[in-house]
Amino acid sequence: MVRGLRAPIRGATYRRGAFLLLGGALLLPYGLVAVGLARQVRDGGTPLAVVVPMTIVAAAIGLVPPLLRGARSLEIAAVRGLLDVDLPEPPERISAEARLRAALWFAVHLTVGGGVGLALFVVVPTAAVLVTTRTGWAAAGPAALSVAVLVATVYAVAGLGALARLMAPVLLGPSADERVAALEAEARRLAERNRLARDLHDSVGHALTVAVLQAGAAGQLLATDPAFVARALTAIEETGRAAMEDLDRVLGVLRDDLPSEPDGTRPDLGDLAALAHRTGAGLATAGPLLAVPPALSQEAYRIVQEALTNALRHAGATPVSLDVTAAGTSLVVEVRNTLRGRGLAGMRERVTLLGGDLTAGPDGDQWRVRAELHW
Known about the structure:
Elements: H1 2-5, H2 11-43, H3 48-63, H4 69-83, H5 96-133, H6 140-172, H7 176-220, H8 226-254, H9 272-279, E1 282-286, H10 294-315, E2 320-327, E3 330-337, H11 345-353, E4 357-363, E5 366-374
Helix pairs in contact: 2-3, 2-4, 2-5, 2-6, 4-5, 4-6, 5-6, 7-8, 7-10, 8-9, 10-11
């Protein structure tokens, strides 16, 4: 109650008044057209056969702006700035239901704004003029009317502004379809970031594993096998450089001001030879690997990378073989080593997301990890 009585001294009241007067300003062109047409009818100089079509055309033109996306964007900006209501920007494509709600808001805004503008700029000034042109008790009535209208308008602005704050999310907020689309876009964004996080984990984890193993082996053979040491240092350099490139790429994509990552920047099955060379794995391929769809090829590369990393990390310096076969619309990846493997959760997640099958278990005296993907 006390808060309502303080409306004339609250800044929010005057921001709400500015918002309502904006509606009155937008109503002004409609009013001028209506007055012009009314004069045409009143003067009688223009035949009704001309006035009626002009009225219909003017009404049709006047009905278009409230249905445009720009009108909704304008109203949302005004509500944000003057009513302190946080509303999202409208999407590029707006449903018919959202357009109708925005048009209703537009019409109410213009109508109420026109009433507030009429009170402030017509009634109050007229009463003030009457006060200045009369003396004595004759001026008391217009003076009281002027003050009463001004005070009533201030409180009406406070009340109508509060009501507008409540109704803005209902009429200008996102529709059910827009909310679903926004949630789907957010889900895609999070999924992309999760995929990038997996890529970064696999790439950096692989590079560190290879570097540690190669450096350890090189340290033991430093005095007896300089050629192996040179190869180990080369592998460490190549692996580190590849990891730095992956890190730069992922960090660049994670920046909000950059577009989504282009497919061509991610390693795929065409890079398996370099990967096998860095890890020392034996590589055997069959079938048209380059015909595998790019997205599947890139994910398959990450599966191979994680499998080799796990083999090196948990099995140490034991022989690792890699077989990759493409046939028809299927791709089969097999990694074998002599010790039991671990760390399959990441691979299983990737394979499941791609709709494939992952099996891991003993095969004779070896441990086999097999991933089968389809497209």
